[in-house]
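Re: [ENG-882] Designed sequences occasionally contain unexpected residues at chain ends

Forwarding the minimal case from QA. Structure tokens:
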């Protein structure tokens, strides 16, 4: 059972207040404002991300959670400038990274940021690594791209240092190995070494442990957290595993069908979840303390982009849905006046009782 889920609401509130007081003093690194991403397809213009806003500060971990198809990876690709074009295109909003709007940069201009200032660990390392290059050369390649005056021997030494840093045994052997000669956990560590080689300010992890067994998963997550502590890197953790979120995250962004539905600190989310979708995700976590014969599951599926419902996108699956939910889309508003806990649900507005 993840540790944060078992605390009381009072303890969660106290932990949340401490986290907020600590985080507000940190310098803002990434500020996404009213981001819109549209897919232009044969079926017309489909909204992949709608009016998304959030902030990341230096040295903190933001978890972006939701089921498959909720827009988590699309958000990461938008920040990295790796949206598949066509059909995807940023159609509104800003992605302010350390004072620069990345949404306005060309692909050539984005290369100066990727690798050096922003790194990304992709979901499946076997499809992300070059099968005909050794691990050492792939790490060295990124170092040389952003340090063109560095000679290859120095870059090799730096790459070997990164392999050691991510806890790979027999680093010299792995340096000379090809991806197919490595296990899944080793390949994921190589991906982390590539992402951290130039010590970026922001590390985006797109479900970095999905294909790994539980033991290796724990090691990878501990490694990412240790890198954050040692290098001061801000981490965006994209996942659907709420247990991982409770252990790793400082702040949590819950997404559904391309919309932001809840946004607050981790301790507050697990002790005082507000949106019915967030409650469903938390209730879906299996517990050794419960003697239930059947696990809870949210009924239905995430809607297709071409079949988005009117009003609140979650209303077809929501047990509390009313007429207003089916007609109007709720705004993301503070819960009980708390600016650090926002929720997009009509239940917490004056219109709910009408």
């Amino acid at each position: 059972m993840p540790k944060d889920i078992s605390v009381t609401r009072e303890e969660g509130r106290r932990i949340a207040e401490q986290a907020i007081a600590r985080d507000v003093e940190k310098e803002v690194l990434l500020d996404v404002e009213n981001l819109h991403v549209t897919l232009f397809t044969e079926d017309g213009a489909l909204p992949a991300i709608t009016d998304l806003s959030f902030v990341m500060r230096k040295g903190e971990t933001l978890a972006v959670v939701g089921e498959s198809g909720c827009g988590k990876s699309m958000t990461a690709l938008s920040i990295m400038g790796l949206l598949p074009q066509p059909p995807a295109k940023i159609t509104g909003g800003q992605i302010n990274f350390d004072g620069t709007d990345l949404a306005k940069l060309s692909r050539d201009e984005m290369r100066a940021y990727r690798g050096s200032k922003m790194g990304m660990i992709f979901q499946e390392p076997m499809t992300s690594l070059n099968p005909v290059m050794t691990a050492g050369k792939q790490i060295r390649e990124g170092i040389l791209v952003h340090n063109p005056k560095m000679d290859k021997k120095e870059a090799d030494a730096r790459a070997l240092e990164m392999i050691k840093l991510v806890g790979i045994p027999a680093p010299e052997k792995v340096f000379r190995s090809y991806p197919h000669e490595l296990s899944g956990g080793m390949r994921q560590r190589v991906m982390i070494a590539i992402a951290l080689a130039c010590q970026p300010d922001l590390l985006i992890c797109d479900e970095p442990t999905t294909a790994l067994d539980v033991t290796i998963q724990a090691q990878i997550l501990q490694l990412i957290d240790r890198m954050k502590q040692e290098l001061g890197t801000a981490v965006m953790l994209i996942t659907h595993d709420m247990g991982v979120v409770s252990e790793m995250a400082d702040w949590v962004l819950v997404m559904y069908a391309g919309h932001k539905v809840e946004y607050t600190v981790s301790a507050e989310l697990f002790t005082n979840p507000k949106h019915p979708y967030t409650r469903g995700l938390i209730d879906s976590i299996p517990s050794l303390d419960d003697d239930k014969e059947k696990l809870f599951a949210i009924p239905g599926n995430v809607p297709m982009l071409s079949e988005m419902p009117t009003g609140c996108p979650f209303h077809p699956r929501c047990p509390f849905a009313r007429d207003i939910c089916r007609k109007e889309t709720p705004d993301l508003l503070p819960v009980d006046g708390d600016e650090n806990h926002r929720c997009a649900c009509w239940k917490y507005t004056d219109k709910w009782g009408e």
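QA comment: On inspection the terminal residues look reasonable. DSSP finds 13 helices and twelve strands in the chain. Proposing we downgrade this to a documentation issue.
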